[in-house]
């Protein structure tokens, strides 16, 4: 696919002039209000309505569709008539709007390793958001999901810096196509790396570490033209990121050349005073935040008074305010909000058939086959009776995941499913109209039920399993266990789920387990009890339809894990690219290895890798080389393989990870055919970040690893010369 041009169009000289003229005319109050974003949660209704009527606010968040009218009217009748930007958490589709397409979660879509797909999801989402009258998506999350206890791992593209960078840039290209909406890279910086996996907590990393692992995705999206950034709640080494002049002004704006604007996260200015005890009042908070490089305050109404006072006292020079306002107005200009040229698709795109089709493809590519003893694909002709068992078999809420109309902004837990919503149970029923299918949930995940009811459910499920040819067991987590403030101290399956798996497998050999979860959980028990195991994460509206088609072999698997699965909660962190050398490399009471590694994913096709060839086995540090490998599909089934290229520096003056991913490619390989995959790699990709923050490639030997599962490798050695 041709990459779309997401780079914001250059603003015309007329618009630049208009922005300067506006800034020249604006009062301090008008400027400060442009720097303010409010939700209806921020103030008592009467006060909030007055603000809406006055129409000075730069932005609102969590306003949906038809509601935008009164906000726009307020702005249009204000002195300068500057229209607001409406921001929304459309993080896997415009999912806060009931009826819009709900795509798989970010973690699920990352299993595809498919930049083209992710870009298309971005574009479809942007069309639905813009058609709904909104302008700005608070997406993508570029945090690295390395501490699985953290409640927001489902929102990440997984644990690898390169995958996060590439998929992050792809979704932004989609969002910002033709200025449909502005994207927002969040949460800057290292939010997911907080100590203990604690949401919005302190992170102990050095700047060198930040540059090695956490900054590259943000730099990649600046290069892709991302229009806005959101700061993280947390702090790095005791300094809240939102007052870090180093990370915001010096690195993001000056060094990376970010020319959009920075918004804080929810009530961050207030948190500086009330939760982090950094500023004595809102005036000091405004001073610290604005001088550091924040341009817009999300949902701290006190910012208006604080910032005004700080400017009047001379604590914030006017040029800082003008710079923030200029950045905000430029983004508005790029969206067509300043000169009345804003274009919006017709509302009929919301939840349209074309997006449903794309969503089905996304759901298919999001499923990862972890185990298969040959039971899959299920043979329709031999299926007498199927028992579908498990608490997530027919729970569309657990399937679609966090950040939907069910949980935000005003939770609507009683909402009915969309017409398009297909769970594993309804998907199997539709795909197997002539097969007897019985359904038993077997247990609950978190709900309170009596012991009698719990036993009754368990026994009914065991009886159904005993009687069935095949059990499809659907386990996992639910909405209560994923998202902000939902960090877990234990990743074991909740409730009686492991017991259910054990007891079912004792009465039926043919158990196919499907995990519908926000993030990796501890699956040791489940693995032992399963003839096949699928990891689906939150597959969106059509997750169940995709699972049914994959189980029956109507479709093939191509997904790979973008994140590793631990042996137990205590063996965290388990990301693949850690340092070597830890006495015996293991805890005394756990195996050396993870349960599943980054990169794993089986398929109905079988691929054989040839030897790795290098264009040259010696190159200079500023050179480039090519890595080539032949991959043969030795099965009778057409398939897609995600080929991964890693490296390791064999002698380096700093510790280097056991392996680092430097490229990947999705390749279609028809049955019986061989495809040659070539990666072109600049030698600079083999570097490490020095204490001076340079990328250094030290001369010496490097091992290159090519793999289709992150565990078995074909290798070659390359020498970098002086
Ligand atoms: C809090 C979250 O951290 C952020 O991701 C989200 O975009 C904002 N609030 C707005 O809802």
Question: Features of this protein?
Answer:
6-stranded mixed sheet, binds 1-deoxynojirimycin, globular, 28 strands, 5-stranded parallel sheet, 722 residues, alpha/beta, 20 helices, 30% helix
Task: Describe, in plain words, how this protein is organized in 3D.
With 722 residues, this protein is α/β, with parallel strands linked by helices. Helices cover 30% and strands 18% of the residues. The protein has 20 helices and 28 strands. A six-stranded mixed sheet has the order 12-17-16-15-13-14, sandwiched between helices. A five-stranded parallel sheet has the order 4-3-2-1-11. A five-stranded mixed sheet has the order 20-28-27-22-23. β15 (470-476), α18 (497-507) and β16 form a beta-alpha-beta unit. α1 (13-25) packs across α13, α3 crosses α4 (68-76) and α11 (282-292) crosses α12. It is globular. The relative contact order is 0.10. The mean pLDDT is 96. The structure holds 1-deoxynojirimycin (NOJ). 1-deoxynojirimycin binds next to loops.
Offer a concise description of the structure.
This protein is of the alpha/beta class and about 725 residues long.
């Amino acid at each position: 696919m041709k990459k779309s041009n997401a780079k914001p169009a250059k603003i015309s000289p007329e618009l630049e002039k208009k922005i300067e003229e506006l800034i020249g005319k604006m009062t301090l109050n008008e400027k400060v209000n442009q720097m303010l974003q409010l939700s209806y949660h921020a103030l008592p209704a009467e006060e909030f309505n007055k603000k809406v009527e006055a129409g000075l606010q730069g932005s609102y968040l969590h306003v949906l569709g038809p509601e935008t009218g009164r906000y726009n009217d307020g702005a249009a009748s204000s002195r300068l008539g500057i229209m607001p930007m409406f921001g929304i958490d459309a993080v896997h589709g415009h999912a806060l709007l009931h009826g819009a397409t709900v795509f798989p979660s970010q973690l699920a879509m990352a299993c595809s390793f498919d930049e083209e797909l992710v870009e298309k999801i971005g574009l479809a989402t942007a069309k639905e958001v813009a058609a709904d009258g909104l302008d700005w998506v608070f997406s993508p999350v570029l945090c690295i999901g390395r501490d699985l206890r953290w409640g927001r791992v489902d929102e990440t593209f997984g644990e690898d810096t390169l995958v996060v960078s590439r998929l992050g840039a792809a979704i932004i290209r989609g969002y910002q196509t033709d200025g449909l909406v502005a994207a927002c890279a969040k949460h800057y910086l290292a939010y997911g790396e907080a100590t203990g996996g604690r949401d919005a907590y302190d992170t102990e990393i050095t700047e060198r570490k930040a540059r090695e692992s956490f900054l590259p995705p943000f730099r990649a999206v600046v290069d892709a033209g991302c229009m806005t950034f959101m700061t993280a709640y947390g702090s790095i080494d005791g300094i809240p990121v939102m007052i870090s002049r180093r990370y915001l002004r010096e690195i993001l704006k000056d060094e990376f050349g970010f020319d959009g604007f920075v918004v804080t996260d929810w009530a961050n200015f207030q948190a500086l005073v009330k939760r982090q005890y950094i500023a004595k009042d809102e005036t000091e908070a405004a001073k610290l935040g604005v001088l550091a490089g924040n341009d817009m305050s999300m949902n701290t109404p006190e910012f208006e008074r604080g910032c005004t006072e700080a400017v009047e006292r001379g604590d914030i020079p006017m040029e800082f305010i003008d710079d923030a306002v200029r950045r905000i107005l430029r983004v508005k200009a790029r969206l067509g909000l300043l000169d009345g040229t804003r274009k919006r698709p017709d509302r009929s795109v919301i939840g349209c058939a074309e997006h449903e089709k794309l969503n089905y493809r996304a759901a298919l590519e999001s499923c990862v086959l972890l185990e298969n003893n040959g039971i899959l694909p299920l043979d329709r002709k031999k299926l007498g009776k199927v028992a579908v068992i498990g608490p997530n078999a027919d729970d569309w809420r657990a399937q679609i995941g966090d950040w939907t109309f069910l949980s935000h902004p005003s939770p609507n837990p009683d909402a009915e499913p969309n017409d398009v919503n297909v769970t594993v149970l309804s998907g199997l029923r539709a795909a197997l109209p002539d097969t007897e299918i019985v359904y038993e949930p077997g247990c609950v995940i978190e709900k309170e039920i009596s012991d009698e009811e719990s036993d009754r459910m368990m026994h009914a499920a065991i009886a159904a399993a005993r009687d069935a040819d095949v059990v499809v067991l659907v386990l996992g987590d639910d909405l209560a266990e994923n998202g902000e403030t939902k960090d877990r101290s234990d990743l074991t399956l909740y409730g009686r789920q492991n017991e259910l798996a054990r007891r079912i497998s004792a009465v039926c050999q043919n158990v196919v387990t499907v995990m519908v979860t926000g993030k990796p959980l501890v699956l040791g028990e489940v693995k032992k009890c399963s003839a096949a195991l699928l990891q689906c994460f939150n597959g969106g509206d059509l997750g169940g339809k995709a699972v049914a088609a994959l189980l029956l072999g109507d479709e093939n698997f191509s997904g790979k894990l973008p994140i590793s699965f631990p042996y137990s909660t205590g063996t965290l962190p388990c990301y693949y690219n850690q340092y070597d050398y830890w006495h015996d490399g293991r805890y005394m009471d756990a195996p050396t290895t993870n349960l599943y590694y980054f990169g794993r994913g089986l398929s109905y096709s079988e691929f054989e890798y040839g030897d790795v060839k290098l264009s040259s086995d010696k190159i200079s540090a500023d050179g480039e080389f090519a890595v080539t490998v032949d991959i043969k599909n030795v099965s009778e089934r057409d398939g897609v393989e995600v080929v991964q290229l890693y490296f390791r520096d064999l002698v380096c003056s700093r510790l280097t990870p056991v392996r680092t991913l430097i490229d990947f490619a999705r390749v279609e390989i028809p049955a019986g055919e061989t495809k040659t995959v070539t990666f072109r790699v600049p030698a600079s990709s083999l570097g490490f970040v020095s204490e001076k923050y340079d990328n250094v490639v030290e001369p010496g030997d490097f091992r290159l690893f090519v793999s289709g599962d992150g565990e078995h490798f074909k290798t070659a050695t390359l020498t970098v010369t002086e």
